[in-house]
């Protein structure tokens, strides 16, 4: 309860921080940066989301946290050079929420960022069983240029065949398959199947958690479109990210 109260306070007073991790193309150029929330806690140091997202969930603060991240990330990203996009994870503010479209549209409009530089990351479970009304609303955002990404693909319950029903332009292959892609034949098979299927359905594929040159090579051969992981960069504070952008690939 103590931590929950402090989190509530932090949310109300801009007491959280965002770090950014680049998503790069084959040539190393930065295409997107994923915003990853941290909490610079007065007594406990920089807390990772695994520690406080459960607290947020318990305290019914996830939706508010997502709104804070969305607003903050868009405001920071509008200062980046074209055409670098920003990706925001949403867990509490999801398409089924009646205020979803309005909230997103307002945040984009207020920030002044071009719509096509906004990516919204959702887990599989938030994207299945969407009533047609909700799909329609999401389509309005997509028509204006927003892209949706399915995060951690392969870890949820949907089968590959359901990929075609997911209203998402980007598929993020979970790092559990990426980690073994260069030496484990079943990880390789899953990664390849996901990428082949995604491509057949006109989606872009991002590999998450790329840590080694060997993984990168194999993923490139499979035909992944973009890459994210420690091989390229850890998540870094906004200043450091901007400095890296200025230096180029
Ligand atoms: O940054 P890190 O790799 O420690 O993130 C751990 C988990 O927290 C990941 O599952 C990630 O999706 C989630 N996460 C990180 N930042 C955010 C955020 O800003 N909003 C939400 N809803 N989840 C986040
Ligand atoms: O669940 P989601 O994909 O949103 O969260 C990304 C998480 O993966 C963050 O916690 C981030 O710090 C972590 N991450 C990013 N790159 C790597 C990597 O190369 N290796 C590992 N082990 N974790 C990574
Ligand atoms: Mn993510
Ligand atoms: Na992930």
TrEMBL record:
Domain of life the protein comes from: Bacteria
Residues covered by the EAL domain: 1-249
Protein name (Swiss-Prot/TrEMBL): PAS domain S-box-containing protein/diguanylate cyclase (GGDEF)-like protein
Part of the full-length chain shown: 800 to 1048 of 1055
């Amino acid at each position: 309860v103590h931590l929950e109260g402090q989190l509530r306070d932090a949310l109300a007073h801009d007491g959280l921080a965002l770090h950014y991790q680049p998503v790069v193309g084959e040539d190393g150029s930065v295409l997107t940066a994923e915003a990853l929330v941290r909490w610079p806690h007065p007594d406990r140091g920089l807390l990772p989301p695994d520690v406080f997202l459960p607290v947020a969930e318990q305290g019914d603060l996830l939706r508010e946290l997502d709104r804070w991240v969305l607003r903050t990330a868009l405001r920071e990203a509008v200062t980046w050079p074209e055409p670098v996009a920003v990706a925001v994870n949403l867990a509490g503010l999801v398409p089924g929420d009646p205020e979803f479209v309005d909230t997103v549209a307002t945040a984009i409009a207020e920030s002044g960022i071009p719509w096509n530089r906004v990516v919204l990351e959702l887990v599989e479970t938030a994207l299945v069983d969407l009533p047609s009304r909700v799909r329609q609303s999401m389509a309005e955002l997509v028509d204006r240029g927003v892209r949706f990404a399915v995060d951690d693909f392969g870890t949820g319950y949907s089968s590959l065949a359901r990929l075609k029903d997911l209203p998402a332009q980007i598929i993020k292959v979970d790092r559990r398959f990426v980690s073994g892609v260069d030496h484990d034949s079943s990880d390789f098979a899953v990664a390849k199947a996901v990428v082949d299927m995604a491509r057949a359905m006109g989606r872009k594929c991002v590999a998450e958690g790329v840590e080694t040159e060997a993984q990168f090579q194999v993923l490139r051969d499979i035909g992944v479109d973009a890459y994210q992981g420690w091989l390229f960069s850890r998540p870094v504070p906004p200043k450091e990210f901007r400095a890296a952008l200025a230096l180029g690939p």
